[in-house]
Amino acid sequence: MLTAVFVDASGRLKRRRLFHAVFACVLLALLSTLLLIAAPAFAGNELVQGIWVLSCVFFMKMPLVMILWWLIWRNKELPGRPVEWSHDELAGILEHLLRQARYAATANDEQARLAYLSGEAWHVADRAGGDAKVDALTVALQIDERLAVVRGSTRPPRG
Questions:
Q1: For the residues 92-101, what does the mean pLDDT come to?
Q2: If DSSP states are collapsed to H, E and C, what string results for 49-114?
Q3: Are the CB atoms for 156 and 105 separated by under 8 Å?
Q4: pLDDT at position 27, please?
Q5: Cα(143)–Cα(141) distance, rounded to whole angstroms?
Q6: Is residue 80 pLDDT above 60, yes or no?
Q7: pLDDT band at residue 54 using 50, 70 and 90 as cut-offs
Q8: d(CA 44, CA 103)
Q9: Which residues contact 122 (CB under 8 A, 6 or more apart)?
């Protein structure tokens, strides 16, 4: 049910709708806390007081708990299971690696940064599949080429 409301046809979160729902649920949870202050007013009738407290604690806070658990369950990564990236996620990871490699050229520890990024790029390339594997291998090789130039083992190509 929550998936139908908060996820579009391509599997992406409808962030604005989710933000508004979480905001409304947080306000409802805060309101329920304030309404608990009125519980002593029903001291004469234990049944009414019990229903009041139950509704304030359970029914008004449960929507927030449900949305948060749904988000956790939807985004879980279990140990020992390979992570599966969507095409957009993989493209974002590769772009981030290239951006960090360009930034490394301005840092004092360029060689260490490029060595780390090389390992990350090869990790991504190992787990990518299909056409995305070619892109991941290209990024890994580009970072390795920059690392080799920094180490001085090769000269940059002229042309």
A1: 94
A2: HHHHHHHHHHHHHHHHHHHHHHHHHHCCCCCCCCCCCCHHHHHHHHHHHHHHHHHHCCCCCHHHHH
A3: no
A4: 94
A5: 5
A6: yes
A7: confident
A8: 69
A9: 140
* Long-range interactions of 34-43: CB distance < 8 A, separation 24+: 35/60
Residue type, 64: L
Give the pair of three-digit tokens for residue 69.
């658990």
Q: Residues 14, 2: contact at Cβ < 8 Å?
A: no
Average pLDDT of the chain?
A: 86
Q: Any idea of the CA torsion for 23, 26, 31, 33, to the nearest 10 degrees?
A: -170
What is the spatial distance between Cα 80 and Cα 60, in angstroms, rounded to a whole number? 37
Nearest-CA neighbor of 55 among 31, 76, 78, 74?
A: 31
- Residue, of 38 and 28, whose pLDDT is higher: 28
Instruction: Report residue 99 as tokens.
Output: 């951006």
Q: For the whole model, what pTM was predicted?
A: 0.56
In angstroms, rounded to a whole number, what is the distance separating the alpha carbons of residues 42 and 54? Answer: 13
